[in-house]
Amino acid sequence: MIFEKIDKNNIPQHIAVIMDGNxxxxxxxxxxxxxxxxxxxxxxxxxxxxxxxxxxxxxxLYAFSTENWNRxxxxxxxxxxxxxxxxxxxxxxxxxNNIKFKTIGDLYQLPKKIxxxxxxxxxxxxxxxxxxxxLALSYGSRNEIVNVVKELSDKVxxxxxxxxxxxxxxxxxxxxxxxxxxxxxxxRTSGEKRISNFLLWQIAYSELYFTKKxxxxxxxxxxxxxxxxYQNRERRFGKTSEQVK
Length: 245
Ligand code: IPE
Ligand code: IPE
Ligand code: MG
Known about the structure:
The protein has helices spanning 22-28, 33-54, 73-96, 112-125, 141-157, 168-172, 220-231, 241-244, and strands spanning 14-18, 58-65, 99-104, 131-139, 185-188, 207-210. The chain is of the alpha/beta class. The chain has a single domain, classed as Undecaprenyl pyrophosphate synthetase, CATH 3.40.1180.10. Strand 3, helix 4 (112-125) and strand 4 (131-139) form a beta-alpha-beta unit. The longest helix is centred in the middle third of the chain and has 24 residues, at 73-96. The protein starts with 13 loop residues before the first strand and ends with a helix. The structure holds 3-methylbut-3-enyl trihydrogen diphosphate (2 copies) and magnesium ion. One 3-methylbut-3-enyl trihydrogen diphosphate binds next to helix 1.
């Protein structure tokens, strides 16, 4: 069993996933793209379950990018409906499994009904502590960085902070991800080998894992494979191999 091959003492603290390939999954079956998004929900459930079982503390899922607003309106509407439905279905499970729910991204662009429900789920799960599940919604890393620059320049202008005190920690503390640790492992499904504007700052030293599996086909054993690959790498952070041994 592949599960036994995982070193339980070297579990990544933070896994981020670019859940890609829903459209192609549907197309292969002669179905509409929407069916792929619907099928992707099962993968989300399985992966969350798996993170809880493995004791992974942080899971961040890329669900909708700033660039995805350029998709056909009908697909965007479907994704929003699916999101609302999923949140309603899962709220109980989040609490049952001690999962804290968060979001990153420019939420104000989402329909009001969804913003309200997101806030409800966040507030009703805020004291949970087993896993922090963060959904990236209307998220773009460049947009996030632009917001940090704006916020910091206002603070400098108003003498709240001096520009000479701006360092990496200050920038970190102004990102949407301010309370999350760095990403250890970034997974992208569907065979594309690109980052698509996801967590550019936060993945500076992440291990990257690309798989051809389409997101609706991604299951627990695929996550185990990614973790085993991660565990077989030497993270040197600029040092020599001898230094980190
Ligand atoms: C990922 O699947 C889901 C979202 C981006 C919302 P896609 O919809 O991008 O699927 P492909 O890449 O077209 O196969
Ligand atoms: C990235 O997938 C965004 C999400 C998974 C939410 P896309 O399918 O939008 O990425 P590109 O455009 O192919 O790079
Ligand atoms: Mg895609």
